[in-house]
Amino acid sequence: DSGVTQTPKHLITATGQRVTLRCSPRSGDLSVYWYQQSLDQGLQFLIQYYNGEERAKGNILERFSAQQFPDLHSELNLSSLELGDSALYFCASSVVEGAGEQFFGPGTRLTVL
Amino acid sequence: QKEVEQDPGPLSVPEGAIVSLNCTYSNSAFQYFMWYRQYSRKGPELLMYTYSSGNKEDGRFTAQVDKSSKYISLFIRDSQPSDSATYLCAMENTGGFKTIFGAGTRLFVKA
């Protein structure tokens, strides 16, 4: 158990809908990272927050947004969902702001029908 | 060309074999190199974390980084069926906040 929690574990929804994925980092970790993992794309970095502020962006679509709250938990919002958004979404956390060891949560499996 | 290249396998070996997993990369600015293990439908688990070139050993695992060749390796000695998983290499540059992952190599260790 990495200490990173993610909810929900599974999510099934329809195209065009909006969903929110939640992540709680390990105790003491200030950085939160979001990744998308699909069969054909591998593990893709989406966005990183450090102590409430956005620090880096990867290949995150405009339909996706995230934030980190004062209690350090983070939410990833996915809107206008498409079939291609079906994937595993992982959250990771680390103590440092960058280039640190990242600890991954169990992931949220999103299925868009 | 991808920044990080990793053969997806699958790689099948008998129990007790030495396993060699490799990644190549194109960005010479990468300074931090990681190996993660991912069991099916689980989150990746950090195995090895190294800075710059050289070797690092932890139990049955040895990580090697050759920056001159832009090549990193993970060796698993005395492989066990429980080592069967996907192994992902990952890299970051100094001061960067974006981790680039390889596609992952699926490893099967047969009892």
Could you characterize the architecture of this molecule?
The complex is a heterodimer of chains A (113) and B (111). In chain A, strands 2, 4, 5, 6, 9, 10 and 11 form a seven-stranded mixed β-sheet that branches. Chain A is globular and about 40 Å long. Chain A has no helices and eleven strands. With 113 residues, chain A is mainly beta. Chain B contains no helices and eleven strands. In chain B, the strands form two sheets. In chain B, strands 2, 4, 5, 9, 10 and 11 form a six-stranded mixed β-sheet that branches. Chain B has a five-stranded antiparallel β-sheet with strand order 1-3-8-7-6, with no helix packed on it. In chain B, strand 4 (30-38) and strand 5 (45-51) form a beta hairpin. The N and C termini of chain B lie far apart (37 Å). The A-B interface holds A 2, 4, 33, 35, 42-45, 48, 50, 55-56, 58, 88, 90, 92, 97-99, 101-107, 109 and B 31-32, 34, 36, 41-46, 49, 88, 92-104.
Q: Which residues of chain B form runs of ≥5 with pLDDT under 50?
A: none
Could you estimate the helical fraction of the residues of chain A in percent? under 10%
Q: Figure out the total of helices of chain B.
A: 0
Calculate the mean pLDDT score of chain A and round it: 93
Please work out how many helical segments of chain A DSSP would assign.
0
How are the SSEs ordered, and which strands pair?
The complex is a heterodimer of chains A (113) and B (111).
Chain A: E1 5-7, E2 10-13, E3 19-24, E4 31-38, E5 42-50, E6 53-57, E7 64-68, E8 74-78, E9 87-94, E10 103-104, E11 108-112
Parallel strand pairs in A: 2-11
Antiparallel strand pairs in A: 1-3, 3-8, 4-5, 4-9, 5-6, 7-8, 9-10, 9-11
Chain B: E1 4-5, E2 11-14, E3 19-25, E4 30-38, E5 45-51, E6 54-58, E7 61-66, E8 71-76, E9 85-93, E10 100-101, E11 105-110
Parallel strand pairs in B: 2-11
Antiparallel strand pairs in B: 1-3, 3-8, 4-5, 4-9, 6-7, 7-8, 9-10, 9-11
